[in-house]
Design brief:
The structure holds two protein chains of two kinds. By secondary structure, chain A is an alpha+beta fold. Chain A has a domain of 117 residues. Chain A contains 25 helices and 37 strands. In chain A, the strands form ten sheets. In chain A, strands 1-37-2-3-8-9-10 form a seven-stranded mixed beta sheet, with helices on one face. In chain A, strands 6, 7, 28, 33, 34, 35 and 36 form a seven-stranded antiparallel beta sheet that branches. A four-stranded antiparallel beta sheet of chain A has the order 11-20-21-27, covered by helices on one side. Chain B is an all-alpha fold. Chain B has one domain. The C terminus of chain B is likely disordered. The chains are: A alpha+beta, B mainly alpha. The interface between A and B is large, with 40 and 40 residues.
Chain lengths: 830, 136
């Protein structure tokens, strides 16, 4: 009987199915985004192989872009503005999502993409107010006739980015990330480029070390600063031995009377740890290396510049390599920062330059006397300024608005935790002109023009090393270094201690006022130094010098290793030698510490497994290669020793707060029979070192297995992820065996507490430039691929060679006919 | 005769595949418009089919064929691997479209059968006219 109605039944069931399939996406936010593969979630596939003619408004002449076999675009334009307009288009085509995330991060607008997940992060950045200082900076630049050229470049670049977004729209293409997020890409504005610059500057210079140091002092007293040599860092090797002030105008500071106070900071320190974590998204964790050597030290007689900035490893990488040729054959090439119209690290026909982070103290914290919401500042009462921030947060059917109140003082935003309230002042909160500086580096023709450009490099101060084709070499850590009114803290032994800026100040008494900045000419620097070379590795800038720059320098190990290797072949150094140094995996820290640690416990009876491990280290060559068996033990043992020696002193602070040089000094002092000023702070050194060793071996046996199974590359991995990689693992790069350690020239940054380890930061690129006046070559490596489009064959094609310690060559050819590209884009339109 | 019928089926399959491709190309990725391509393919498949076998073949083959051709058109191994690695992001829309096309085809086919075949007799009505399996 039912058979008679089979068509009716079939119609009924199929109708329900059809209607159901049509309405089901209404109940699932993700489903509509993936149901149109070609124009939706695979939208980026349509851009991955884009080639041919593209109409671009605003060009004066045709621009050719030739992508080489590495996915690096070579831009050939008649004039500068055309080149930068196309640069904007290419940045957007190959890296728009990365640019978008960076600008939103800086402006506190990530929640417009990711919803509640990033709301806390947005609140942090609204509090910081980076976008406010970005607006001030843009306003200043746009209204200044001195910066007309740079402003025009910024506008041209911005237009190029937006023309790419219009290209997408007019062709019905959604980039994959946006299709999956269900958000339309937002147009680019000049403020966005400035914001990205501010974010980079913040991540490289903002710190709460003052609060951490206050915590340490609260816990241990002022003596600890002197006994552990935390301020002077006399064990550190400075870049320059000394520097004499040139202008003769010494900024005169006043000193207030004794004012050390144990102000509570524990809550604030904990609450700001999140912001420190954000720095690691793109920023400085490990420091960087660079050096410049004059022609007198090289085999061929030409200067060489080498640079490897250590930043977070991300998919895609922070840097985007490109080469621009325009005008009279002027070439600029190197690592650009997507979202900004600059080759940040690179060269042109005449000069090459590189940066490492100075890491000075350019952030101060202030406490006040409070009366409700009023604070006493320099003897006068002020009301808190309240800034209401409206944060748009993506929800399923649109956006909601969350209000966030930021309280500010005249010195800066307030950070508070229960009764702990501090105002924060940072050099980057004002108008700063790094973009101007770097654009002027891009068209400098000798080191003297670089020096003039460096006057505008305000924050974050960078150890600039450079050379020109005339054979000149330069070191200039340009930046804004505040000079403060000091505070007398008290006597430690026979030393009078003054707060130069390393502890919070009492602003109610007017302490810590910034009375000015070190004059540009008085910043320690060197032009054609006698030694013929300069190396910087975030170590102390200068020894004898009248101004305070900071105290939190990187340990000297990378610096010493590089310097040693350079000196070994001084006079006959080659490009290959530079490469050998940049990829060096021998740990000078291990070499400086392990023999002493072994000697301390050499007379301790050890059972088989411990004796086997001991001998492994005793015969180790200190190289942290993937095959190293000793490296895992070294890392854990060193961490345990450091923690064992300083755990009580540090409390909740991380182990890395005390320099490793201090641990080295303790071990050497113990063996020499004299611990000096360290003695009262450490316990039984021998027992600590011994227990640290036993614990490290046990941990490795439990987590990994016997000694035969210890292999550094099995425990440490390159596992480089995309911002959306947790939800979409196919955005992440392949996993590779790791190498290096915290203090090797080719470093690896990771959390050492418990293996296995994931490398979070390392060389974000490495580049070497030869200034022979004929070629415009860069030898480089990149931890990923140049194109950020996940479907492009150039998404991660350079990673293999980066890990295998190889280099590629980038050359800016004179004309587009000089080489055969992989594919070509031609822009025209006018 | 058999060859001619096979040729016709093949022609329909290819036509529906091309139609699906063109519809995908011109359809914006906004809901619910993005479901039109499989819906239209399913409608046509249901309309032109006179036997269950035609229905199965014409509603189930064009969409997978399109995606096979799409994957084969990717001449870079890395890109192909990456597309395949997207997993559910690739498979869910394919299966969803397939299911929608098939359901629509069944719907149209049975409506047609219910109202007497529309200008030709169906297999079930015993007529020998109008079937893809027949000549002319």
């Amino acid at each position: 009987m039912l058979w008679r109605y089979k068509h009716h039944i079939a119609i009924l069931i199929s109708s329900i199915l059809v209607i159901g399939l049509f309405i089901l996406p209404m109940f699932s936010p993700l489903l509509p985004r993936i149901l149109h593969p070609l124009n939706g979630s695979f939208g980026s596939l349509r851009i991955a192989f884009l080639e041919g003619f593209i109409e671009l408004q605003g060009l004066e002449s045709e621009v050719q872009v030739l992508y080489d076999q590495l996915g690096i675009p070579h831009v050939y334009a008649e004039n500068e503005l055309d080149a930068y307009r196309v640069m904007g288009f290419l940045h957007a085509k190959d890296r728009f999502f990365q640019m978008d995330v960076m600008r939103r991060l800086a402006q506190g607008r990530l929640s417009e993409l990711f919803g509640d997940l990033t709301l806390d992060m947005d609140k942090e950045f609204r509090q910081l107010g980076l976008y406010i200082s970005a607006y001030k900076t843009l306003d200043y630049i746009s209204n200044s006739t001195d910066f007309r050229r740079e402003y025009e470049i910024l506008l041209a670049y911005t237009d190029g980015v937006n023309q790419f977004l219009r290209y997408l729209k007019s062709n019905g293409i959604m980039l994959t990330e946006y299709s999956l997020l269900g958000v339309e890409p937002e147009e680019w504005r000049p403020i966005d480029s400035i914001s990205i610059g501010k974010f980079m500057a913040w991540s490289l210079s903002w710190s709460m070390e003052d609060l951490r140091l206050q915590y340490l002092v609260n816990r241990n007293g002022l003596d600890i600063l002197v006994d552990l040599d935390l301020l002077d860092r006399s064990l550190n090797t400075p870049i320059l031995e000394s520097f004499t002030i040139k202008t003769g105008e010494n900024l005169t500071t006043s000193v207030s009377k004794k004012s050390f106070k144990e102000v509570p900071v524990e809550g604030i320190v904990n609450s700001l740890e999140g912001l420190e974590e954000v720095k690691k998204i793109f920023g400085f964790v490990l420091g960087s290396n660079n050096w410049v050597i004059s022609g007198g030290l090289t085999r061929d007689g030409y200067p060489i510049v080498a640079n490897d900035p250590h930043l977070s490893l991300t998919a895609p990488p922070i840097w985007y390599y490109m080469a621009l040729t325009f005008g009279d054959g002027f070439k600029i090439l190197g690592a650009s920062l997507p979202g900004t119209p600059v080759i940040l690290l690179g060269r042109n026909n005449y000069v090459a330059w590189g940066f490492t982070n100075v890491g000075p103290d350019v952030t101060d914290f202030y406490y006040f006397v409070w009366d409700g919401d009023r604070y006493l500042y320099r003897g006068e009462w002020f009301n808190i300024d309240r800034r209401v921030e409206e944060i748009r947060v993506k929800v399923d059917d649109g956006y909601k608005v969350v209000e966030y109140i930021v309280n500010e003082t005249v010195l800066g935003p307030i950070y508070e935790y229960k009764d702990e309230r501090y105002a924060m002042r940072w050099t980057g909160s004002q108008v700063t002109l790094e973009m101007i500086a770097v654009l002027r580096y891009n068209y400098a023709r000798n080191i003297y023009e670089l020096i003039e450009a460096a006057r505008y490099f305000h924050v974050a101060p960078q150890n600039l090393v450079a050379a020109d084709i005339e054979g000149n070499i330069l070191y200039y850590p340009a930046g804004l270094y505040p000079v403060r009114n000091t505070t007398y803290l008290g006597d430690v032994g026979d030393r009078k201690l003054f707060n130069l800026g390393f502890l919070p100040f009492n602003a109610s008494r007017g302490e810590g006022e910034w009375i000015g900045y070190i004059e540009f000419e008085d910043i320690p620097h060197a032009i054609n130094p006698e030694e013929g070379f300069i190396v910087t590795a975030n170590n102390k800038v200068v020894g004898k010098y009248p101004f305070y720059l900071g105290w939190s320098w990187a340990d000297r190990y990378r610096y010493m290793r590089i310097k040693t290797l350079l000196m070994e072949k001084a006079g006959s150094l080659t490009l290959e030698d530079m490469m050998t140094i940049q990829i060096d995996l021998r740990s000078y820290a291990a070499e400086s510490i392990i023999p002493y640690a072994l000697d301390i416990i050499r007379d301790k009876p050890l059972e088989d497994r411990y004796m086997e491990a001991f001998e492994l280290l005793d015969f180790w060559d200190y190289r942290m290669t993937p095959d190293s068996q000793a490296a895992p033990l070294y890392i854990l043992w060193l961490y345990n020793i450091h923690r064992g020696l300083w755990g009580d002193v540090l409390g909740d602070l991380s182990v890395g707060f005390i320099p490793l040089e201090t641990t080295e000094a303790v071990l050497k002092g113990y063996l020499a029979g004299s611990l000096g000023s360290y003695g009262r702070w450490v316990g039984d050194v021998k027992e600590i070192v011994y227990r640290a060793f036993i614990d490290a071996v046990d941990k490795l046996y439990n987590e990994i297995g016997s000694v035969d199974e210890w292999r550094w590359g099995d425990i440490l991995k390159y596992n480089i992820t995309h911002f959306m990689g947790e939800a979409l693992p196919w955005f992440n790069y392949r996993v590779y065996d790791g190498q290096g350690g915290f203090y090797t020239v080719f470093p690896a940054g990771f959390s050492p507490e418990m293996p296995p380890y994931r490398i979070s930061s390392s060389q974000s690129m490495r580049s070497i430039y030869l200034l022979d006046g004929e070629s415009t070559l860069i030898y480089f490596a990149l931890p990923g691929g140049n194109i950020g489009n996940v479907f492009s064959p150039h998404y991660e094609d350079l990673l293999d060679d980066y890990v295998e310690l190889r280099y590629f060559k980038l050359e800016a050819y004179d004309s587009p006919d000089a080489f055969t590209p992989e594919y070509r884009l031609v822009f025209g339109g006018g | 005769m058999i060859g001619k019928n096979v040729f016709k089926i093949l022609l329909y399959i290819v036509s529906l595949t091309v139609l699906y491709m063109l519809l995908l190309d011109f359809t914006p990725p906004s809901y619910p418009i993005l479901l039109l391509p499989p819906f239209i393919v399913g409608m046509i498949a249901g309309f032109v089919s006179w036997r269950k076998l035609d229905l199965l073949v014409l509603s189930l083959l064009p969409i997978p064929l399109y995606y096979i051709a799409f994957l084969l058109s990717i001449d870079r191994v890395y890109t192909l691997n990456k597309v395949l690695a997207t997993g559910p992001i690739l498979y869910i829309p394919i299966l969803y479209h397939l299911f929608l096309a098939f359901s629509t085809a069944i719907l149209i086919y049975n409506v047609k059968m219910l109202f007497g075949g529309w200008g030709g007799s169906a297999e079930e009505s015993g007529s020998s006219q109008g079937s893809l399996a027949q000549e002319g």
